[in-house]
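Hypothesis: this fold can be encoded by more than one sequence.
Test: take the structure tokens below, design a sequence, compare later.
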């Protein structure tokens, strides 16, 4: 009986040591500062919050995907060439792309538009709420217009965690930039 207690205690101790070590190692791989991430052949960039990582499983059409699954905070950016549209405005592009999200959400609601001041880049943001497969979500849908492109930036979280993620979401939005080459 005593051997069994010692073995069980030893097993628990090993699990705790491995868990703590894994946490320390994982922390070493996270950036210490927000990291500039470029996309579309280094044409555009945003700052990725320090606790986030690049993702590849959020949306097949996204040009950039990133997030933090522990915070339930995610962002995708989908960029489209203006030549592919028949002379539509920023607002019309936003309406078109938001309608695609609306179709997938139960109990969909959207806020009034908010113009975001980003210098030379025009941007419009909507707050979207609804549920997907019984899970309540909150999104910021941001449409940005540059000279030759529309950029759809979708940032989301669980309803209960959205407010805690707003600072990271705002930093991603306001860090969007066009690069020289």
């Amino acid at each position: 009986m005593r051997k069994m207690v010692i073995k069980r205690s030893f097993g628990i101790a090993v699990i705790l040591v491995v868990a703590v070590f894994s946490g320390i190692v994982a922390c070493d791989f996270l950036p210490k500062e927000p990291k500039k991430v470029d996309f579309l052949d280094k044409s555009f960039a945003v700052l990725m919050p320090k606790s986030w990582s690049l993702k590849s499983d959020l949306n097949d059409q996204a040009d950039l995907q990133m997030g933090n699954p522990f915070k339930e905070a995610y962002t995708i950016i989908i960029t489209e060439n203006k030549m592919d549209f028949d002379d539509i405005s920023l607002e019309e592009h936003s309406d078109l792309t938001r309608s695609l999200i609306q179709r997938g959400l139960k109990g969909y609601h959207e806020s009034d538009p908010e113009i975001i001041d980003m210098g030379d880049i025009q941007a419009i943001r909507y707050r979207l709420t609804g549920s997907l497969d019984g899970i309540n979500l909150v999104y910021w849908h941001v449409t940005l217009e540059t000279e030759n492109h529309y950029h759809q930036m979708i940032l989301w979280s669980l309803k209960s965690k959205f407010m805690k993620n707003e600072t990271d979401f705002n930093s991603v939005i306001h860090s969007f930039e066009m690069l020289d080459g």
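Residues 2-29 form the longest helix (28 residues). Residues 2-8, 24-28 have pLDDT under 50 and may be disordered.
Hypothesis status: open.
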